[in-house]
Amino acid sequence: MSPKASARDASPPPYVTPADEPAGASRSSPVFVQPHPPAVDDIMAHLKLLETLAQLRRDIYLHDGLFGLWDAEASAADSAIGRHKIKRALREKRWAAYVTMAVQRFEIWWNRAVAADPEDFTLWDDMSAEYVAPEALAALSGKYDRLVWTQASMPPLDVLMVWHTFTLHPRAFLDDCARAKHMQLWYSGLPWATIDRCISDTYEYVVPLEATINFETATQVPWTQDLERPLLSLKCPKCASPVAVPLTTGAVGNPDKPFVDGTGFADRAFTATCDLCQYRLDHNSLAVARFQTDARECYVSNKPMPGTMLGSYGAASATNHSRQQLHLPNRLLQQPMTGAAVLEFVSPSNAVGRTLVDVSGLLGRIVNDRDKVAKITTASRLSNIEAYGLRRMMASYWNNGTAFSTDLVGAVVRQGSFVEKMEELGWIDSPSVAASLSRFRHKYAKFFSIIRVADARSMVPTIDIDLVWHTHQANAFSYYVWSLTALPGVYVDHDDKASEPDLMDAFQATTKAFQSATNGELYSECVCWFCESVREFDASSLLPSKETRNARANTRVLRLEGADRQPCAHMSVHAVLRPNNQQDLIRARMQRKLLERTFKKVRQRAKKGGFEVPEIPEKSQLRMWGLEFLIRNSAAISRDPSISDSCYGHNPLCLATVNDEFTGCAAATCSATVSAGSCQPLTARSSFMALAGGDPMVYAHEIDMGATGGMGAF
Q1: Which residues face 280 on adjacent strands?
Q2: In the Cβ-directed half-sphere of 222, how many Cα atoms lie within 13 Å?
Q3: Closest to 530 measured CA to CA, from 614, 637, 425
């Protein structure tokens, strides 16, 4: 039986009420439960955390003078619009600097305070079954203790914020936990019950004094950030001496491209010099240094490189042959001749002025050398899987200024609009919140059942589904079991980058699949012009199906209930990105025009039914960073307009898809450059990765498939 057929025929994950969490101890043996959606109480606690994070975000960006950024700088502008732009840039930069420091503090907590596993996590041996049975996972979970979090053991809110965001990248989080021997952390998940107890009725994060003492003792850093002009201590890649660097410097400058001249660690043009050896530090040199550190550990201690712990679909591959192929980066670095050559190339003494592009070029030359390739693989050239493994390893370094497999600064920043949307919807304060969350929970289960059988490559959640999906991912082990039970061999990822046209196409496919599977239930319970157009676009047949007729009837009910004036479950788009290639920009414009034509049909049909549907507004009024802006509606869906890439050390909206862009993975491993290593293997393994013709070993060069609030990638 093929994996695809097995996924279709398997029974859906049953709904099982989770067992009570063990309490009162630092560790406890995990209790295995059948796969289930997250409990309503967990989703409620998640909503409370998001409300607390929304308040934190607002407190930071409104804090005049924070990190030396004063609103008075806006008074120098010669127009009201100019002052508005400068004030917006200052507010965004405060948050950017705060998040950058939070990620640094999270890294310290991760390294010093999180208990290490008693033994290495042998991922390839323990999670290699192609069809993972719950009983096998139960036995695996028994190898590790479950960390039990009390209020006294919780980290500060900024560290918790980063931890929460990290769990929303399931494959990266598992990969890093396995490499860092933090599988106990992975199995334990976010302690929703404890988080709930730490948040007051006014959504303040309150912990006992013991928590402060425990954190500061373990990490040797203060409980709260230095909010004036903090200095970060970086280790010089060459002599290992500490280098004190400012978090941010400079002024707004051009309000349309603010802070481009800043040289602090949270700035795009970061630069510093080691007083002891005069080594120059910048974002490029630190990225190469991080690669050098990982490569040396792989060469000397056989520690796997980032991105090599999991199989092509997030779970370990079932065959030894595939394991060896995906481990190509490790074999390349562990082989004496090629490993020594790479380490020599990236050593601080030789790597002055070198970037990851140079590292990519070296790897390309190695894999183009048949004699060298023959020493690290069974053939004289790389297989598709081996090339994919090398690209995926390099994906951990591109446009990433953190020590983790994904850029956590950008990830937290991209979560900002989702956090704000949750606050705006006000679900947490609704008297019927429990009933609503129960409904969201069941809709999420339907969404996943559609994932099991859909023919589309990626699925886009609505914002109510996304809330439950986020909650589930934060309990990583439960989500892993749920995912692999629904789709054997596939750990469904939930990355947070997606291009406008890809997101649009995937949302249309998801809407169609959901309405077909539910006899016309509305997927996006919203009557904005966009959602109405998507439903009508799918219902364009001269002889509409029963599901389509039911969907139209349900839309009429929404209009009668005034859903257009109430908080509703719109498409989740908080991580949509605009690509920088002309082809996709043209696709986005064509989609917009098609939806506009479709919306005319919507208005005509509504008028016949006695409803007046307003025309598409040319502009929308948005509130960003506490300020009002008027935005032209030029695309069907748009990337988050509140993010200015120049305010960050690394672009949180990076999505380069054209040749010669710096995000190319590894020279000679693919025929076109891709975004941050997002080449996805297309095999019969997943119905979401089938091309016409069905070649089981075709690799596509796609924009990042998947978005937190975007798409689920397989």
Answers
A1: 273
A2: 7
A3: 637
Q: From the first residue on, what is the mean pLDDT of each consecutive set of 10 residues in the chain (714 residues)? A: 35 34 41 73 97 96 93 86 90 96 96 81 46 51 75 97 96 90 89 97 96 96 85 92 92 88 93 94 94 94 86 60 71 91 92 89 89 81 83 88 90 90 88 90 89 68 91 92 81 71 76 81 73 65 67 69 57 56 67 74 72 68 77 57 86 53 34 32 26 24 28 41
Give Cα 101 to chain centroid, integer Å. 19
3-class SS letters over 657-693: CCCCCCCCCCCCCCCCCCCCCCCEEECCCCHHHCCCC
Instruction: In whole angstroms, give the CA distance from residue 695 to residue 686.
Output: 12
Q: Give the Cα separation of 266 and 259 in Å (integer).
A: 10
Longest dimension (CA), the chain: 79
CA distance linking residue 59 with residue 95, whole number of Å: 9
648 vs 97: CA distance, rounded Å: 8
Contact status, residue 413 vs residue 652, Cβ threshold 8 Å? yes
- Give 690's contacts (C-beta < 8 A, 6+ positions apart): 455, 457, 682, 684
Total count of residues recorded for the chain:
714
φ and ψ at residue 181, rounded to 5 degrees: 60, 45
What does pTM read for this prediction?
A: 0.83
Rg (CA), the chain: 25
Q: How many C-beta atoms lie closer than 10 Å to residue 653's C-beta?
A: 20
Half-sphere exposure of 424 (CA within 13 A, CB side): 16
Burial category of 418 from C-beta neighbours within 10 Å (exposed 0-12, middle 13-18, buried 19 and up): buried
| Distance, CA of 463 to CA of 524 (rounded, Å) | 9
